[in-house]
């Protein structure tokens, strides 16, 4: 039987997913509400598949996806989020996810994604993937989404540097790229543009 880990910061979402997936025949299901809890659970339990929300209280789901892929080529990783914006799908793929599912999709879509990730963890499936490949204008990377999430929390350059384990100079380089792609000149405008363009995962 496959071992599943659900990573989401909302208890109701985790409980609902656990109930639905149990009904679909999965029985070995554990939960985590943060990046830190997820890392500990993954290290201790070695799940076969992890479902991950993008916005977590202590970091980005993309960051967690990249970390998982750096330690395992066999683990299935399904990004499960409210936002199906093309940039999110593309970022999930580049981070190393096996599949991308919007929370508005029916449970059978999630089950199919989980089963796909078990069989082919290094491939990628998502609804509307063909459109994603066609549109490459101003594409934000997974790391840039990580920075946007930190900006939204009001973190300084030094705090972002510490949180993401990158140098302040690298933070500034990423910020410059974000500003260029969003066609803004400062942090406040970047956060506003993120919400205007539907790039917030909440």
How would you characterize this protein structure?
With 202 residues, this protein is α/β, with parallel strands linked by helices. It has two domains: 3-134, Rossmann fold; 142-196, Arc Repressor Mutant, subunit A (Orthogonal Bundle), CATH 1.10.10.10. Helix content is 53%, strand content 15%. The protein is built from ten helices and eight strands. It has helices spanning 11-23, 35-45, 61-71, 86-95, 107-119, 129-134, 142-152, 157-164, 168-182, 187-196, and strands at residues 3-7, 28-32, 49-52, 55-56, 59-60, 76-81, 99-102, 125-126. The chain has a six-stranded parallel sheet, with helices on both faces. Helix 1 (11-23) links the parallel strand 1 (3-7) and strand 2. The longest helix has 15 residues, at 168-182. It is globular.
Describe the structure in brief.
This is Two-component system response regulator. Keywords: DNA-binding, Phosphoprotein. Helix content is about 55%, strand content about 15%.
What attributes characterize this protein structure?
202 residues; alpha/beta; Rossmann fold; Arc Repressor Mutant, subunit A; 2 domains; six-stranded parallel sheet; two-stranded antiparallel ribbon; 8 strands; 53% helix; globular; EvgA-like; Two-component system response regulator
Largest sheet, order of strands side by side?
2-1-3-6-7-8
- The first-level CATH class of the largest domain is given as Alpha Beta
> How many helices?
10
CATH superfamily of the largest domain: Response regulator
Classify the secondary structure makeup into a structural class: alpha/beta
Strand content: 5-15%
CATH topology of the largest domain: Rossmann fold
- First-residue to last-residue Cα separation: 32 Å
Count the domains.
Answer: 2
Determine the mean pLDDT: 88
Q: Helical proportion? A: 40-55%
Number of strands: 8
Looking at the chains present, what oligomeric state does this protein adopt? single chain
Radius of gyration: 16 Å
Q: What overall geometry do the principal axes of the alpha carbons give?
A: globular
N to C succession of SSEs: EHEHEEEHEHEHEHHHHH
Low-confidence stretches: none
Described by strand count, sense and barrel closure, the largest sheet is: 6 strands, parallel
CATH architecture of the largest domain: 3-Layer(aba) Sandwich
Modified residues (4-aspartylphosphate): 53
Domain Response regulatory: 3-118
Protein name: Two-component system response regulator
Pfam family, one: GerE
